[in-house]
Amino acid sequence: MNCKIFHRITLVLSFFIFFQSCHSSSKKSEQQGEIKAEDSRGKIISLPEEAKRVIVLFEPSLDEIYMLHAEDKVVGIPQQVFQNEDKFEFYAKLDERIKNKTIATPTFGGGSSNIETIVGLQPDLAIVYEQNIETIQQLEELNIPVFTVSSLSQDKIYKELLGMGTLLGKKQRAEEVVSYVKAEAEKLKTPANEKPKKVYYAWSKGRIFSTSGKGTLLDLAIKLSGAENACPLEMESPNVGAESIYKWNPDLIVLWNSSLDEVYQLKELDALPAVKSKQVFKMNPAFYYDPHTVKFLLFAKQLRNWCYPSAYSTEQLNKEVQNDIMQLYQKPDLYKKNAI
C-alpha cells in the first residue's frame, strides 16, 4: 500500500515539475524576441534586442536607414552604392565610410551576395529585397534574421520603414518620417485644374521599353502628381514595343537613372510627338527622386512641375524639395541648390 501511495505521489510530482517546466519555457520564450516587426512576406521577425549590426542588401532600404539616423548600425551595404556616381555623391555626405570606401560590400553586383563575407561581418539582422529568394534562404539557414522588403506600394513603403525602425530601435524617428510624408502627400492630392497629362515612365539603366502598369508603385506616384499613367496594362513591369507607345501617345516621357539620349537616339521613337516636342525628362539627381522609398513624394512633386508648370512652379518645387530633404535627413548640405 505504501509503495502504491509513493508511486502516486511521485507521478503527481512528475506532472507538477513537467508543467512548471513548460510554464517556465513559455515565459522565457515570451521574454525573448521582445522586438518584433512583420516583413513583406507577412513573417514576424523577432529579435531579443534592437539590432546592432545590420547588413543592408537593398539600396533603397539603405537610403531609408540614413533617414532613420541608424547608420552606425550598418556594417555592410550593396556594391552598387559605389557604382552609381550620382547617388554616391550624396551617400558620401551621409557616411565617411562610404566616402572613403571602407565599408564592406558583401555583394557581387545585381542580386547575388557573398554569404561568407556576410557571415564574417556577424550581423544580427539582414535587410533583403524579397525577390532575392536564394540569399534569404541561405541566411535564414544560418540563423541570421532576415527582414524582407518589397517597396511595391506607398502603404508597403510606410509599413516596411516602420518595421525597420522598430527593429533598429528607431521607431519614433520612423513614425516622424512617415507622418511627414503622409501629410505632404495629402496636400498633393488636390487635382490640377487642367486635363490630366499622360505620362510614360521608362525603367532605369536605359530600359526604355520597360514600364510600370496600373496599380504599381510608379502608377500611384504618377497619380499623386495629378497626371495619369499612359500604360493601361495591369502588370508590374511589362515590356512593350514602340507601336504600343505610339498608340498610348504620352504627353511626357519620364526617366529615372537613365540618360535623355537613350530616348532621343532611338529611331523607333523619333516620330513620337512627345519626343519631337522634347517632352522627355530625367529625374535628376536620382538620389532625390528614388520612387522605391518615401521619396516617391519628391518624384510626384517633380512630375507635377513638368506636367503643370503654371500651377506648380519650379520656384515652388525647389523650395519644397529643399524642405523635404531637410525633413527626411536633417542634413542641410544634402540639398544642392542647382540640382533641379
Helix percentage range: 40-55%
How many DSSP E strands? Answer: 10
Calculate the terminal CA-CA distance, rounded to whole Å.
94 Å
Q: Taking Cα atoms only, what radius of gyration do you get, to the nearest Å?
A: 25 Å
Instruction: Give the strand order of the largest sheet, numbering strands 1, 2, ... along the chain.
Output: 4-3-5-6
Query: What is the H/E string?
Result: HEEEHEHHHHEHEHHEHEHEHHEHH
What form results from the Cα inertia axes?
A: globular
**Number of distinct helices:** 15
Q: Low-confidence parts lasting 5 or more residues at pLDDT below 50?
A: 1-31
Query: What integer is the average pLDDT?
Result: 89
Which strand-content bin applies to the residues?
5-15%
Explain what the structure shows:
The chain contains 15 helices and 10 strands. It has 340 residues and is of the alpha/beta class. Strands 4-3-5-6 form a 4-stranded parallel β-sheet, sandwiched between helices. Strands 8-7-9-10 form a 4-stranded parallel β-sheet, covered by helices on one side. The longest helix has 30 residues. 39% of the residues are buried.
